[in-house]
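Batch manifest, entry 17 of 40.
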Amino acid sequence: MKQVDPALEARHAALVREIQAHIHRYYVLDDPAVTDADYDKLYRQLVALEAEHPELVHPGSPTQRVGDVPRGDLVKYERPVRMYSLDNAYSEADLRAFAERVVRGLRDGETYSYVAEPKLDGASIEIVYAVGKNGRATLSMVSTRGDGKVGELVTENVKTIKSLPLVLDVDPGLAGKVEQLTLRGEVVIYRKDLDVINADREANGEEPFANPRNAASGSLRMLDPRVVAKRPLRVSLYQLVEGPKLHASHAESLEWIASIGLPTHRRQVACASIDDVLAAIEDFDRARGGYPFETDGVVVKIDDYRQQSILGETAKFPRWAIAYKFAAERVATKVLGIQVQVGRTGALTPVADLEPVQLAGTTVSRASLHNFDRVTSFDVRVGDFVEIEKAGEIIPQVIRVLHDQRPEGTEPTPVPTVCPECGTPVVRAGEEVALKCPNRRCPAVVRAALHYFSRRFAMDIDHLGHSLIEQLVASGLVADVADLYDLTVERLVGLERMAKKSASKVVQEVEASKARPFDRLLTALGIPQIGQVAAKQLAEEVHSLELLLELGAEGVAAKAGHIHGFGPAMVDAIRAWIADVDNRAVLEKLRARGVSVPYQRAAVAEGGPLFGKSFCVTGVLTRKREDVHADIRAAGGEVHDSVKSGTTYLVAGDKVGATKLDAARKKGVQVIDEPTLMTMLGKTGG
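Output type: structure tokens
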């Protein structure tokens, strides 16, 4: 190895320190001291110096953030100390009950205090720094939260986050106390950065991210760090696992984390009582609209580490912490117009165009009115002032009309009699609320069907965004989902923003989707009342597209009638869909093009821990819903699309709507959370 010149080494070290200082000011303190051009000049100097003298390169250099080669599949990692989820509080009463439990868990008369901090809405990670003998700490491993015990390694991706130092110069005495620093935090994308990302995605015909959390989580799990490096990810650390070995309290650890150059939210508040906590929550609620990141609540923790240890944990949550969730935010704004959207089933959905207004940290200019019965009952009109709400990931919706503020001269909103897209007279089937366009060739229906068909949980066809789908339908290249498999590079090249390379990618993705299993095809077809779970159940009985066509509507309906949980309405829906001449023609076209492979039934684990139990899974989970379903089935359990009388458990993640919870209460179904399910599966540990 080439000897390092001391003078060059000193020059390199000074340049690295200067660049790291600017990175910290820009990405952590939000207080840049130089222009982007000046920073780029310094960075180019470092790159040139290392290119001329490669012996100077070390893991802590800012040039070493991005790996050169995409990885294969993500590697699982079982952590020694579990990442617990937090119990939730939704009211003052919930918080006071938490405080009472703390009092009962500590000695009589013992004083204690809290730390309140914003609950960032991002992707949770664990970061490990290896501590050397000189006290220098080097970033060695990063994993996702996973189920708390087992996560996935995403080290190379997180190394691309500029706010996170690759090397820390900490106290030399640290090496004698701990061998590593294990930090937990949240990867986030600022709202302003998400706006830029989504603008680029829409310009490229890609679907925009629904929120910063989805963007951050999706970026973490990408296989090519070079792509991740282009995403403006940031990290905010909120816990030091080795804190009790180094400090007396959580607050001290947070201050120390920030002092050694690591990014934190820097918004924690010390609270001497639960009344102080409630006051802090009010302050956070008022201020959150001005934060650069999304926050959906406040985390409240007992500050003293010794008292945290005494209080301990349940099988699910730490007893010393709780997450207070903010109520859904509501704001008033003006209706500028009412548009009608046509979905893949032909349903007409009225949508209010609004005077733009800030709601839950985002600018909202549209809100759902659900159906025309609601439009009529609310008597919502163009020019009205309305109150809108957005809870979690739910589309903003009109909650009520402020009739006392109605201006003069407004007119009642007419109920459409024809489809706004194709002019076909609309219908209302039976007792259905929705008005529908019955025209299967309606451009809006075809576009929506193609979008649904290509989604990740269905046929998973990438590069098929809204813009391209619109062109495919408008040009006549595609009239139904089966026509996708007739696309060629030559046919696509003539479309807007579709060069030969882009066209090749689309054709390759469409071709690859032919290998999706039969249950994914059944999901993608959008048969009424048949979601992902029901599609898998049906595929277990009707193993392939060939057999489905051979059996016909009555034969498939007969098999469906024997599936547990398939009621008469579901069976009738399947029979009617398959009996439809147009649907049958699409199925024949798909078969002729070799789409989908037969479904392979998984072995039933009769001795599994969940045998004889059934589960409906809802809400936002730490893992993909399909993976959770697969674990349940592998353990012998049964999965239901909705809460039924025979459902044993409703597994409720975050942001659960009231409908399934109400159904569970009415049917006597026990509600559990994801950590409880993982314990039942035998996948959690201490």
